[in-house]
Amino acid sequence: MITPMTRPPVAGMPGYSQSLRCEAQSARRARRLVEVVLAAWRLDSLSGTACLVVSELVVNAVKHTESTTVRVGIIRVGPRRIRIGVSDTSAQMPLLKTFDRCATSGRGLHLVAEAAVRWGVDQGRWGKTVWAELSGGQPPGALL
């Protein structure tokens, strides 16, 4: 369930965001937020990929920053296109490591890059937001 801390933006594109503790369990909460929002937007077909992406972004923030909280956001940037972002207070930029099929870690951003139409990092004075855009789903007004 979306908690009272989840709120739509005041202006601009439709979206939702939620602040979560910077801990591994928050990946589950972030997935739930994404599932609920995509269901409301009738973009359920993006749910599996979107949940993978948000999980990887949250886990990266947990593993590689000393932030106490992360902010997960999902906005609709087109009729069938969304942007998922995870913000933290670290100035350290994420690294897309050399892909190693035998490695047990270090593949998260590769998964994000493969799943996304595009992805990137926005840096601010307070930290950064790592984001990915996904596309697909039912066209507006389509019958289920």
| Main β-sheet description | 5 strands, antiparallel
Which percent range describes the beta-strand content? 25-35%
Q: What distance lies between the first and last C-alpha atoms, to the nearest angstrom?
A: 24 Å
Radius of gyration: 15 Å
Verbal overview:
The protein is α+β, with helices and mostly antiparallel strands. The chain contains three helices and five strands; from the N terminus they run βααββαββ. The chain has a five-stranded antiparallel β-sheet with strand order 1-2-3-5-4, with helices on one face. Helix 1 (26-40) runs antiparallel to helix 2 (47-64) and helix 2 packs antiparallel against helix 3.
Topology:
Layout lengths: L14 E7 L4 H15 L6 H18 L4 E10 L2 E8 L19 H8 L2 E7 L2 E9 L9
Antiparallel strand pairs: 1-2, 2-3, 3-5, 4-5
Helix pairs in contact: 1-2, 2-3
What descriptive keywords fit this protein?
alpha+beta; 28% helix; 28% strand; 3 helices; disordered N terminus; 144 residues; globular; disordered C terminus
